[in-house]
From TrEMBL:
Protein's name according to its UniProt entry: Hypp7194 protein
Alphabetized PANTHER family for the sequence: MAMMALIAN EPENDYMIN-RELATED PROTEIN 1, RICIN B LECTIN DOMAIN-CONTAINING PROTEIN
Gene Ontology cellular-component terms listed: extracellular region; lysosome
Record's keyword annotation contains Hydrolase: no
Keywords in alphabetical order: Signal
Family, as annotated: Belongs to the ependymin family.
GO molecular function, one term: calcium ion binding
Keyword Methyltransferase recorded: no
Gene source species: Branchiostoma lanceolatum
């Protein structure tokens, strides 16, 4: 009997190691994300926001669409972004306005980064309906600490927590995300369709969508945008 024990342990160890792999999300997925965040700092004081997102990701056709609704102290915003890699275009749609910029480089596959450490595995729920998840910890751009949970089967996102300390203005911020209604295909591919009518020529930029000045400008526009007063065209 004794000689049977070892293979079982080896098998268990093997299974545990397999589960800790740094997996990638499916090549196609569609999900709803609810997000809540707050920040505190001596300069900006406290602020908080709530938001929801619809994300459609297609690594085969190389397209990504993100629709976002946020509420920050009663200021509601809606915007949509389309990343179309084959066309080399990024669209930002806010209310009735739209902006087109260049998109260069390769689309990134959404994965648990190689340097992430595995914190543990656990089950939500009970019995056969329980959901086994793996939890990972990693740092993005040095300062944002990310806790990410993905399902063992299928590598689908479940929850995520970002914490960040900005050393220059001593601001700390926290963002918590929950992913629901996740499917491993895009529910409605029309989310990737570029805006009709197209963005006005003066809102078509030759800069890259990753251009820092452009990103800051987009962030500013997003903060200014309110659902109640669409921008003038
Ligand atoms: C990260 O922290 C470094 C200093 O530790 C700072 O210079 C840099 O601006 C920070 N980056 C971000 C994105 O907060
Ligand atoms: C998730 O799907 C259910 C059932 O279709 C729907 O009622 C619910 O509104 C969806 N949740 C979100 C956050 O979209």
């Amino acid at each position: 009997m004794k000689h049977l024990t070892l293979p079982v342990h080896v098998l268990t160890l093997f299974a545990v190691c397999l589960g800790q792999q740094h997996c990638c999300y499916p090549d196609q997925y569609d999900l709803q994300e609810t997000e809540t965040g707050w920040s505190y700092g001596p300069v900006g004081g406290t602020s908080s926001y709530q938001g929801s997102r619809h994300v459609a990701y297609d690594f085969i056709k190389k397209k990504l669409a993100i629709e976002e609704r946020t509420d920050s102290g009663g200021v509601r915003q809606y915007y949509k972004q389309i990343y179309d890699y084959p066309e080399g275009a990024h669209y930002l749609i806010m209310g009735t306005d739209c902006f087109k910029t260049k998109l260069t480089g390769e689309m990134k596959q959404h994965c648990i980064p190689g340097q992430a450490s595995h914190l543990g595995s656990y089950v939500y729920g009970i019995g056969d309906s329980g959901l086994l998840v793996d939890s990972f910890l990693f740092h993005v751009k040095g300062n944002v600490t990310t806790h990410r949970e993905v399902t063992r089967v299928g590598c689908l996102p479940v929850r995520e927590l970002h914490t960040h300390l900005e050393p220059t203005d001593k601001t700390i911020s926290v963002q918590a995300m929950t992913y629901v209604n996740v499917t491993s295909k895009v529910r409605d591919p029309s989310v990737f369709t570029p805006p009709v009518p197209p963005c006005p020529p003066r809102h078509e930029f030759t800069q890259n969508a990753q251009d820092l000045a452009l990103l800051q400008w987009i962030e500013k526009k997003k903060r200014e945008q309110r659902i109640s007063d669409p921008p003038q065209l």
